[in-house]
Amino acid sequence: MAEPVKKAETETPAPVQYHDADAEPIAELDISHIQTDDQTPVDSLFAEREQRLLVESLYASWKPNQPFLACDNVGVFYGLHLPPVVPDMFLSLGVSPPQGALIHEKRRRSYFVWEYGKPPDLVVETLSPSYGGEFDEKMRIYERIGVRYYVIHDPATFHAKKPLTCYELRGVRYEEVLSGKLEGVGLEARLWNGVFEGVEAEWLRWYDASGNLLLTGAELAERERQRAEQAEGRAKEERQRAEQAEARAERLAAELRKLGIDPNKI
Does an H or E element contain 255, and which? Predict the structure, then answer.
């Protein structure tokens, strides 16, 4: 398998500067020319499931002690007249999704960095046979806009020699994080063999800072069901032991009565 194509290190682009969310509000920008919806289906069955798995497990199990926004296949707009970049999944800490009718406003339909005041903290790309520039063009964009962590899952090693590669932005360039520990966001990326929505495969999963797998809502419900069954099993065993002890006592009392001994006076 050929190595991922890397662009020559020539000119280092200036990082994108964002408006400080605590500063005076800026005038609302004209985004009437921007298209926020693309209804062309392009994801594989595996990629579509994995994206939902990554997002759902965060909302079901993760407790980062701050608000966060996790999305799959949502455009990240980083320039008023630049096309968006659309990661398969992203996570942004310290921001909240719009509520109520606001979520339908055009400026809230996608992730506009000037609205949230920051880029996502983490993006994920799940690769397919058709190469999408994840190791060069997209990587340069994520570097330039300041995405701290970049995770690439190549499940069938279509374009890389290994299925999982994690990067951290250090300065203006990404450097590989071999451990998969994304300490700045309190997560770890690992590959996990198991079944999700009836499909057995090797999935990209999140683990928390203590090394615990972040479970989906269905997995949490199944774990609670198993715990309830185990508790019921233990209670049943206790009842059976009590019944057996009572039966032994009754047999012993009967034997004593045959011998003319009152068991209640012993």
Answer: helix 217-258
Residues near 194 by beta carbon (within 8 Å), at least 6 away in sequence:
200, 203
Q: What's the pLDDT tens digit per position in 143-178?
A: 999 999 999 999 999 999 999 999 999 999 999 999
Does 76 share its domain with 187?
Answer: yes
Residue 34 lies in a domain: no
| Domain ranges, residue 233 | 223-265
Comparing CA positions, the residue from 111, 40, 132, 10 lying closest to residue 69 is 111
Backbone angles phi, psi at 195, to 5 degrees: -110, 130
Q: Is the dihedral of CA 60, 62, 67, 69 positive or negative?
A: negative
The rounded distance, in Å, linking the Cα atoms of 134 and 141 is 10
As separate numbers, helices (DSSP H) first and strands (DSSP E) second, the chain gives: 5, 11
pTM of the model: 0.76
Question: Would you call 64 helix, strand, or coil by DSSP?
Answer: coil
